Amino acid sequence: METRRHSHEEPFGVSAESMYHALITPSAIRSWWGASKAIVIAEKGGVWIAAWGEDENDSDYISSFKILEFEPPRRMLLGEGKYRAKDGDLPFEMNMTTEFVVEPVNNGCVLRIVQDGFPADEAADEFYEACVIGWKNTFDGLRRHFYENPE
Asked: What is the pLDDT of residues 122-144, one digit of tens each?
C-alpha cells in the first residue's frame, strides 16, 4: 500500500533533556497537547497513550501507541497505534509510526516529529491534513508549556 509522511521541526530554547522529559511525562503531555489524560510507560515496549474529553469514563478521542524504540534523551519511536473517536473510527487502517527526535543545539534543542505510514488513499486525506495542522498546534503547545514551566 502506498503511504505518505509528514515531518515538522522547530528550535526550542530548552535543553534536549527538558524536551525529552516533556515528551514522556503525563502531566507535561496533558499541558502541551491539551489531553485530559495521559499514560506513559517510558521504556522500549512500553505505552504512550493520550485521551481527550470531559467524561473520564467515555473519552471523545484516544490515541495509543507502543514505544518501539526508546533512546533518552534523543529519540523515541511510537508505532502499533490505535485511534478511537466517540463519533466513529477512522475510515482506513492505521499503520503509522511517530518518531520524536531531539537534537541539542547551542541555545537549546531542535525537535523533529516524523509521522510515516499515512495511507495515500483519499479516505485518509482529512485525517492527514488534521495531523499536519495538529503538529503545528502541538509545537505551539510545547512553547506555551515551557513558558509556563521554565527550566
From this structure: 888 888 888 889 889 999 999 99
Q: Which residue has the higher pLDDT, 84 or 99?
A: 99
24 confidence band (pLDDT: 50, 70, 90): very high
Report pTM: 0.91
CA distances (Å), origin 80, targets 23, 98, 146: 18, 10, 29
Q: What is the 3-state secondary structure (H, E, C) of the chain?
A: CCEEEEEEEEEECCCHHHHHHHHHCHHHHHHHHCCCEEEECCCCCCEEEEEECCCCCCCCEEEEEEEEEEECCCEEEEEEEEEEECCCCCCCCCCCEEEEEEEEECCEEEEEEEEEEEECCHHHHHHHHHHHHHHHHHHHHHHHHHHHCCC
Per-residue CA distances from 58 to 26, 49, 53, 127, 137 (Å): 19, 15, 8, 22, 25
Which set of grid coordinates corresponds to residue 77? 519511536
